[in-house]
Amino acid sequence: xxxxVINGYHRKNRINKNIYGHFTExxxxxxxxxxxxxxxxxxxxxxxxxxxxxxxxxxxxxxVLRWPGGNFADEYxxxxxxxxxxxxxxxxxxxxxxDVEDNSFGTHxxxxxxxxxxxxPYINVNLGSGRVEEMQKWIEYMTFAGDSSLTRLRKKNGQxxxxxxxxxxxxxxxxxxxxxxxxxxxxxxxxxxxxxxRSYGEESVYKIACGPLDDDYxxxxxxxxxxxxxxxxxxxxxxxxxxxxxxxxxxxxxxxGESEWYHTISQSLKMENLIRIHTGIMRRYDPKGRVDFIIDxxxxxxxxxxxxxxxxxxxxxxxxxxxxxxxxxxxxxxYSDRISMANIAQAVNVLQSVLITEKDKVxxxxxxxxxxxxxxxxxxxxxxxxxxxxxIGPEADRIVNMNHSVSxxxxxxLNITIVNFSADTSYDIECEILGGKADEAEAFILHxxxxxxxxxxxxxxxxxVQFYDYKMTERGIDFEIPPRSVLLIRx
Length: 491
Ligand code: AHR
Hints:
Elements: E1 2-14, E2 21-23, E3 45-46, E4 49-50, H1 51-59, E5 64-67, E6 91-93, E7 99-101, H2 107-117, E8 120-125, H3 132-143, H4 149-156, E9 167-170, H5 183-195, E10 206-213, H6 217-227, E11 233-240, H7 258-268, H8 270-285, E12 292-300, H9 319-334, E13 339-345, E14 355-358, E15 361-364, H10 366-374, E16 381-387, E17 391-392, E18 399-400, E19 402-408, E20 414-420, E21 427-434, E22 442-447, E23 465-466, E24 470-472, E25 476-481, E26 485-490
Parallel strand pairs: 1-21, 2-5, 2-13, 5-8, 8-9, 9-10, 10-11, 11-12, 12-13
Antiparallel strand pairs: 1-16, 3-4, 6-7, 14-15, 16-19, 17-18, 19-20, 20-26, 21-25, 22-23, 22-26, 24-25
Alpha-L-arabinofuranose (AHR) binds near residues 25, 69, 173, 297 and 345.
């Protein structure tokens, strides 16, 4: 029997809902086909946006959406994506399969998408191959209310009022695809760019700098040293590549066994250490913790599905992905005093997507259901809690058997999310709530075989279902969590 103790007397910080953010990139079938099909499509749409996809994203309460990349952002020129669609420039998507980009989805379409989903826009501007002037003009075009040539152009293009834009990323992966810069050089260029980020709206623009890759602690150190006063957040990118000792291979999304199961989870759990160390470095330059930490690209990255365009990075999604998504979201909740946003890559049809589309059909992935179960943590207050754990897994990939987080919403309900990482063992948990008593519970679980996944032909193999294997007690609630599962209990 493991103990879970929830300290209702110790309310910590509010969990920023943006931790449950998503990312859309002009990559493969993410934007085109996955989200935007155009007004003349036979697929039901509103102003070109797929109704099925928008409604699924609304259901999980997507709070914020990052766009247009990724690598694509650092070669994106916003003027290509405004005006009459048929006259927009056709450009090459050099990063992703060399596709011809017809720019039919641009600034106006992105804001329309966010309006339909009901989320905040987060735009990543081009620092790698763009100019300061180009960025400055884009911000004016989007957010200035007065009468300038650029705002006249915006109005001519159909948008009378300025849009509200809070989140602005300045550059993407500038240590590699975004210009191969050193940390010092990027920090200097960042300082120059951010000078010209004018806030025309009521709220100031929240500036996000390109942060480190994985454990590049020097990048964080140099960036904070040179630019801490000029930024609101820095953003880490961390992907999990489960390929085990296979040269140049990232591993398969569906065909894997127990060793890859544990290896993927152990790699994924490294997120916690990365957060601790990077935010520790940030504290040296910002002892009060004014500068936030963001993870605006994360998730599992496998080999592309056989038979698909390798440049489109399309992969399937199994119970393994659900388990690692939940594990990371629990970590983000636990560190939500420092983390203000996270965006899993990418929302539709790419890496660890929540939705997969095939023509007029949409499939909810196991990862989708995790976001559905965890949505109650959005803007809730994190509670102090402790879960007794043990080590499991093969020698090379020892991991904890479970992770968890607990919050209390403004509705007074407790949200407990727990993941069982074991491939074969269930655990009995005795949960005690200090400073509170629960009379009834509602619980949902997602579990299945490691490789279980959903397809158009079989779209319901993995989903959240109601869970009844619990008993209310004097102290709280006792339950048994099965192997390979994600559990939500609401009290
Ligand atoms: O998510 C795919 C790519 O991964 C992004 O475009 C880039 O930022 C990262 O390398």
